Amino acid sequence: MARLSLLTMLHRSLVHRRARSFSALIAMTVSAAVATALLTLYADLDAKLHKEFRSFGANIVVTAADGMALPDDALARAKAAAGNNSLAAEFGYAVATTNAGTAVVVAGTDLSAVRRLDPWWQVSAWPESSTTDVALLGQRAASAIGNEQRVTLNYAGHMITLQDAGRIRTGGDEDSRVYMPLQVFTQWTGVRASVIELQIPGGAKQVEAAIANLRREMPEVKVDPVRQLVEGESKIVDRTHALMYGSVLLIALTVAVSVLATLSASVLERRRDFALMKALGGSQAQLMTMFLLEALVLAATGVAAGYVLGSAAAWAISESNFHAATLPRISVLPAVILINLTIAVLAAFFPVRVLRGLQPAALLKGE
Amino acid sequence: MFVRLLAESFRRQRRRKLLAGVAILLGTTAVTAMLALATSIGDRIHNELAVYGANIVVYPKAETLDVKIGGVDVKPASGGVNIKESELQKLKAIFWANNITGVSPELHLQVTGLDSAGRPYRAQALGLWFGHMWSEGGLRRTGAPSLHPWWKLSGRWPAEAAIHPSEYEVALGSTLADRLQIKIGDTFSANTSGALLEPLTVLVVGIVRTGDTTENSMLLPLTAAQTITGLPDAVDRVDVSARTKPEDAFARVDPDSLPPKQREIWYCRPYANSIAYQIREAIPSAQAEQVRRVEQSEGNVLKRISGLMWLISAAALLAAGFAVSAAMATAILERRGEIGLMRSLGASKTTVGLLFYSEAALLALFAGALGYLAGSGLAAWLGAKIFAGDGQAAGPILNPVLLPVVVGLALVVAIAGSTPSIRTALRMDPSSTLRMDA
């Protein structure tokens, strides 16, 4: 009987003061939504940032010993040692002379692999992967070549004629080179690949682990990190991480305190109810349970609505910013529930403690 | 009467005002801090991204090509065209001169000589600035160390000027130091292979680990390099680091194909392309290019991180707005009895509405201004904490532009938050409100 009447009272209290319940519910929903959105984004931040840093290209360089070529299976072994998610391209270099008599560095490589590895290259047109006798000319190299339509190169007396496929513009060493498919390059010059550029996703730890792995698997070659990339990436990811952490705490605190203020105000305002119930024989514990239950029901509803809203907000933010969706994470739910319930419990207890000292009779008389 | 009512309301209902005030205060604090961080994040991340080195490279407009494999000059260009070091002063006069955060000229050469044990050696060398006096204000000293923050030095950087006639301080790449078995404090001789002049005596004051092929080189002051090559005033490459705006479609167009008005807009935006264009204009003998590996990727990262901050700020704004609105609404709902009393004593709806709106506005102004101060302080503290050790002054703590923005937002939110409850309260019959309360 007592239980039933408590539930009825709870129901009545929530339904009859619809405006008040609604504003408290909004407050709880906002706090849950903010917590969900920020925690979801925060959990996904590192992965998203590391993905952005992939556009810097290779972060590990594998070089053969001086004057030697890499073994034939080096690329496959390097890829296996570096892990599934890595990108790799091998390069062979030779110095040839153009038909204008200028010395130029010619690099043989897998052009389609380079395209994936080095997205910062500005290339006017990538050649079809099936064509073999093509060359990409660095913008400075192009000016040193007499006939740009048919690029004739001379390597120690061996001539080759390539079709000009496009221009490379990078602002780096690539500008003064000619790039061509590795197979044709090796047939022409007899020079094999001597460098592998590798890109490992992740921060300094992953890169170090990959380097250790590579050195163990391939003791005959030199493995070096591209140091400024690895250090810079870790530093920036760490700082952004800290920045997000600060923001999350700040926003969560603000919303929590505002919600607490709203909820306790709405409880405090019901002093008259409180006095009436007490006058009719309600014990302190019963009243406490009543207020607490009310707050908990609001908090739970808030979590349900807020989780959906917050996940949607996180999805929208990362879709518009990183162009990659952040999917809802169940793992943030416990934290969200905990935050909201704590707010609710505090909001219920704080006013009840204030009201405890009040005399119901005095209050009801309107003093 | 109106003013007295207002004053009394603040005096007597301190608890209720405090609650709503705290909500606004916290809300504005959070929003100010987020906005202050979001507006300064671009510069801060740019400073962080400076670890990637130069984003613009300047080299002589010449027919000869670099014949470099893996950073090693296979066929050193002999007697190539150079840029004049004195012409670099012109960089201070370009439109975006203030955005230039570092300049590092280089002169590549080969040195030979006798090492400290008297054995002959041959090595690559690089003439550099190590902390060159650039200008009086703004960027004061610049050079290779600031453009290559990943270089790890033991010892110290060489002094720019000769310590004695034809005796200079130098730094050695770690591989070269190992090869020549030279330690800090050793002296030996260096000359170019042509041996036009008396050899220089060099004193090693630093050993550098760079993680790349520069470790095979001797790093000597630019003046020393110019002296022994017999090329006074010459440099063959300049690295420039500049604060830029991430590239968009407009940045990629060729400025010379644009109509004058559009061209001016292009010219006056700090794109890497426009800064490179201005460098080419200032130094006609030079070719300037953006370093795409750095510039393109930096732009990407910068865009993402500052975009994230702005979006989170927007979310914070929304959440704080809701929370404050709810607090305001509650504060008004509590006072329905008061409204009923005022109405039954003959106050018009307008007067009552005005009273409540004035209260909300006063509260918003006061708490909003306080929140602005607290938020600015918080942002400065957070920024300093997170981006510690940049060696870069963070700029003023208070951003005056944010004050009207934040207080205005607080006003809007407070008034919008109270409106529904004030309207409901005014719509109710005063007598029924009073009876229900009695």
In short:
The complex is a heterodimer of chains A (about 375) and B (about 450). Chain A is an alpha+beta fold. Chain A is about 60% helix and about 15% strand.
Walkthrough of the structure:
Chain A is α+β, with helices and mostly antiparallel strands and 367 residues long. Chain A contains twelve helices and ten strands. In chain A, a hairpin with a 4-residue loop joins strand 2 (87-98) and strand 3 (103-109). Chain A is rod-shaped, with a radius of gyration of 34 Å. Chain B is an alpha+beta fold. Chain B is 47% helix and 20% strand. In chain B, the strands form four sheets. Chain B has a six-stranded mixed β-barrel with strand order 5-6-13-10-12-11. Chain B has a two-stranded antiparallel ribbon with strand order 2-3. In chain B, strands 4-14 form a two-stranded antiparallel sheet. In chain B, a hairpin with a 5-residue loop joins strand 5 (100-114) and strand 6. In chain B, helix 2 packs antiparallel against helix 8. The longest helix of chain B has 42 residues, at 292-333.
Name its key features.
heterodimer, A: 367 residues, alpha+beta, 6-stranded mixed barrel, 17% strand, B: 438 residues, two-stranded antiparallel sheet, 12 helices, 16 strands, 47% helix, 20% strand, elongated
The poorly predicted ranges of chain A are: none
**Major β-sheet strand ordering of chain B:** 5-6-13-10-12-11
User: Structural class of the helix and strand makeup of chain B?
Assistant: alpha+beta
Number of strands of chain B: 16
Mean pLDDT of chain B: 83
Tell me the strand percentage band of chain A: 15-25%
Percent helix among the residues of chain B? 40-55%
* Residue fraction in strands of chain B: 15-25%
Secondary structure category of chain A: alpha+beta
Q: Give helix and strand order of chain A, one letter per element, not per position.
A: HHEHEEHEEHEEEHEHEHHHHH
Shape of chain A: rod-shaped
Oligomer: heterodimer
Level of helix content of chain A?
55-70%
Number of strands of chain A: 10
- Number of helical stretches of at least 4 residues of chain A: 12
SSE string of chain B, helix = H, strand = E?
Answer: HHEEEEEEEEHEEHEEEHEEHHEHHHHH
Strand order in the largest sheet of chain A: 2-3-8-5-7-6
Which outline of chain B best applies? Answer: elongated
